[in-house]
Amino acid sequence: MHSRRSDDVGAVMRAGIFLVGATLLAAIAPAQAQTPRNTLTIGMVQFPPDLHPYITDTSIKDTVLLAANRPMVGYASDGSVICLLCTEIPTLQNGGAKLIKRDDGTDGMEVTYTLKPDLFWGDGVQVTAKDFAFSFQVSSTFNPPQVIESVVAVDPLHVKFVLKSTQYDYQRVANSMSGAAVLPEHIEAPIFAKATSPLDYGQKSAFNTQANNPGLWLGPYRVADYQRSGMVILLPNEYWKGPVPYFKKVQMRLVENTAALQANILAGDVDTVASGNLGLTLDQIISMSKTTADRFDFNFIPSVASYEHLSLNLDNKFLSQRRIRQIIAMAIDRGTIVNRLFADRFQVADSYVHPTQFGYDTDTKKWPYDPKKARFMLEEMGFKPGPDGIMRSPEGEKFSLDLTTTAGNHARELVEQVIQTELKAIGIELVIKNQPAREMFGETLRKRNFNGIVMFQTDMALDYVPLIYFHTLYIPSAENSYSGLNYMDWRNPAVDAAIISARAELDPEKRREMSKTIQGQYVYDLPEIPLYFPATGLITPKWMTGIYNPQRYGFITSWIEQWRAR
Questions:
Q1: pLDDT tens profile 102-161
Q2: Which residues, in sequence order, are bridge partners of residue 272?
Q3: In a domain? residue 130
Q4: Burial class (CB within 10 angstroms; exposed 0-12, middle 13-18, buried 19+) of 65
Q5: Domain range spanning residue 505?
Q6: What is d(CA 71, CA 83) in angstroms, rounded to the nearest whole number?
């Protein structure tokens, strides 16, 4: 009986202890669960080969730099231009812009921006108009200016851009300098003055020798560490006067392929991923949205200014022939690619202009999927199949092309395989030679070191006349420090003239007709074969908010200061 009573008392005591302990745990657990997270890790499958805004032009570099630097203007979701570093968008109506007659009698413009007075580099030095004037000097060595004649520091807070002609997009002309970002004159000017060439300057620039120098950065964050092997550490810029960034440390980390990146986010090793082709592929995000909706929020945003395409080297003896480029376009079933690989969330592209955007030509020629006609056209040109089924030219040369894209991107590799199979069906061999993104964008495209086809995505500004993409002057070469984006070597005098005229035309209806000319020549000549307009899938962990911003257009790091824990 005693023993029994002892057990009962002990049981009661243990129950009491358990209840007290459970109560304490219940009190502690929510507190631990609600402890705000103040660090963030972003995974990405591409990584910038350098951090200088003017040396290479890639989406992944923009993603990194926009967290720590900002251009003069940005975009609202409707495409309207908004100030980032200025106080008011200059217009002809408010006097910030005005038409002028140049000394040679031609029409020009002056566009004056008023800088916000509370802009500071990360070392406490104020951002002034001198920084923009110096940036133009540097930009001009990498990319000879076609529109901007000079940039004048009127006073510390007013910077004047003098244009060689009228300019339809004059409100955002400050962003037309290479890389769009402004450079710190007090740090870079001495280095630039001593450089013997643009290449020498690029190698010695503080952006590439001491990226952790706070004085290089004016955004909400500054770069605290940059490792070319694949790591960027961002810390808050204490001199940033905008909304205070929430996260005390942001780590951007390279994960070599999309499969590994997906494993990393599911395991919690990364919190979120870079957007578009810089992170997970859409098929992966769609799959995750079906299985992990309890852990992540998903947003799918159709692209209207980015298009995936095949960039063709027109120096290649096969691809130099327009008829062959047209044949290749007819051999690719883009509709099936969009349907089966991307669940119709992508949209087939017939040109570089999205149907919803200004200037789209509804009469744009289409190249429908027609492999029988494509093969017949090859045979008409004198091509005959060899013993392996691959066509031989009339001179007996095997019709074989290299196809390159960013290694480790699962979706692109699937698209490659589809295109490879479809072209083989008409007798064209594609040899896949994928490369790491840093190599493909850093050397292969930039210096045109490819002999066939490269597949990648171009991200244009809204309502953009494609000067740097299609004009002859922007074919990468030693003369322009390999800064042009006309990787195809497309030389079309009618397009060159239409681009220059369109950029100078203030009347939108006249510019619309010029845009049709450019599109018509593009679709007929096919220096690129447009594939589709992608959709961007954004993944936000449930504990976080701010990555999706329905009011803004651009790379998600353009508003990184708005990201925070719930």
A1: 989 999 999 999 999 999 999 999 999 999 999 999 998 887 777 899 999 999 999 999
A2: 42
A3: yes
A4: buried
A5: 306-533
A6: 9
